[in-house]
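Q: What residues go here?
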């Protein structure tokens, strides 16, 4: 049986529960109901919220739903869809900002801590950290999967993001599935090529870290090429 909000005891309504117990005490259905504010002539806002969430494989799928996708759900018009999209976008931006402020790269151990799970991968993965002037992470991008090859990894592919993100410094990371982080000749040639490319556009390459099974290798610290 569907209940209109006015038929629900006041102390059980989402807004009242939020005031009394705080947002952490509310279910996902109740939180979504507060955003939607109203239901329809056929169902209460709680029933509408429950139907939206229960039709998803998992609640987190809501994070990636577009405005148009939300509008196809019965009971969700442009206004409700816009509210949901705006709230979730704000959430994603705040989380990204929080993570960015917390993550500062000081040395190779910081990088290893962030990427140690790569040691279990069966293929080489190449990442780039885009950093600000204080070496805080602006963005982390996976750029390539497969063997590191100077003919495949080009400065243009990497530094286009430096320009877009206004990132003055970068740091490269890739893994060795063998578990031995010692750089190959190809690793060194590729790194040297990328360092030279960075200099032409005023980007600073901080290091190239290779992740092994239980350790990492800093090409910069070993001074195998001229950074």
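A:
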């Amino acid at each position: 049986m569907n209940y209109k909000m006015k038929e629900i005891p006041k102390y059980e309504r989402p807004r009242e529960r939020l005031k009394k117990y705080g947002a952490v005490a509310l279910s996902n259905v109740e939180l979504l109901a507060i955003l939607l504010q109203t239901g329809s002539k056929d169902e209460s806002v709680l029933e509408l919220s429950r139907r939206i969430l229960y039709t998803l494989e998992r609640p987190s799928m809501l994070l990636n739903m577009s405005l148009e996708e939300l509008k196809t759900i019965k009971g969700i018009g442009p206004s409700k869809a816009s509210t949901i999209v705006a709230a979730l976008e704000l959430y994603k931006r705040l989380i990204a900002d929080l993570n960015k402020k917390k993550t500062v790269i000081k040395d190779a151990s910081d990088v290893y801590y962030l990427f140690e799970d790569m040691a279990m991968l069966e293929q080489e993965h190449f990442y780039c950290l885009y950093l600000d002037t204080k070496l805080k992470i602006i963005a982390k991008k996976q750029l390539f999967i497969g063997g590191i090859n100077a003919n495949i990894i080009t400065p243009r592919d990497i530094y286009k993001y430096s320009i877009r993100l206004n990132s003055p410094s970068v740091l490269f990371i890739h893994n060795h599935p063998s578990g031995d982080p010692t750089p190959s000749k190809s690793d060194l040639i590729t790194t040297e090529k990328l360092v030279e490319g960075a200099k032409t556009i005023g980007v600073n390459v901080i290091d190239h870290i290779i992740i092994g099974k239980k350790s990492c290798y800093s090409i910069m610290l070993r001074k195998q090429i001229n950074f």
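A: Context that may help when evaluating the design: The chain has a mean pLDDT of 87. DSSP finds eight helices and five strands in the chain.
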